[in-house]
Amino acid sequence: xxxxxxxxxxxxxxxxxxxxxxxxxxxxxxxxxxxxxxxxxxxxxxxxxxxxxxxxxxxxxxxxxxxxxxxxxxxxxxxxxxxxxxxxxxxxxxxxxxxxxxxxxxxxxxxxxxxxxxxxxxxxxxxxxxxxxxxxxxxxxxxxxxxxxxxxxxxxxxxxxxxxxxxxxxxxxxxxxxxxxxxxxxxxxxxxxxxxxxxxxxxxxxxxxxxxxxxxxxxxxxxxxxxxxxxxxxxxxxxxxxxxxxxxxxxxxxxxxxxxxxxxxxx
Length: 267
What we know:
Layout: H1 2-8, H2 21-53, H3 62-74, E1 81-84, H4 91-100, E2 109-113, H5 119-127, H6 144-147, E3 152-156, H7 163-175, E4 177-179, E5 186-188, E6 192-197, H8 201-206, H9 212-218, E7 221-224, H10 235-249, H11 259-266
Parallel strand pairs: 1-6, 1-7, 2-3, 3-6
Antiparallel strand pairs: 4-5
Helix pairs in contact: 7-9
């Protein structure tokens, strides 16, 4: 019974009296070897998991490798990230990678497109509302910041955010708390903020369309996503990736990309 209780309590091994020093040494050595094996397995699982994260991150150009290196450097931090680049360059993919590389990866990843909603609805979407806060608010609703607690919130197209919501967002970043629309009690959250934009934020700041103090808060680190014309050497890789993907999806035989096709893409 004593041995069973010890094992159930987490003991790796046990010694029966009387025992000598050599038996103790052997027992300790076994425990240490078992611990070392567990750590090696854990490191291997982590490495394999990280490798799988990059499967859809296609590119070998210098510009693209700089992005990957930066993601690996900042993933484990809690820095707020601003991803900049033209539409279609993969800002959403980068945001998800930063989240998955972080200690918050087991928490939620919540995306909000700031350009998709008018200002009044965006405020409710981000911060939630209380019952009766406005016409149609028949019950209380948590906002995306609450849903992202202990995880990451991704604000896409942040350059389209109105001045009023910019001010409220600044308060959330500084204090990690806010009021729901129509609410009187503070809501506390612990989130990492990732933002993305395809506009010239500095020009927006000069035009008084974006707050300078908010820009500094969301831009602990900036990632520039290169357009295809800035990474032409990746075109063949991308073409091959999508070709194989859709050949498999539609059960088509593989046809190598011709030199003429590659030349057409590069043109």
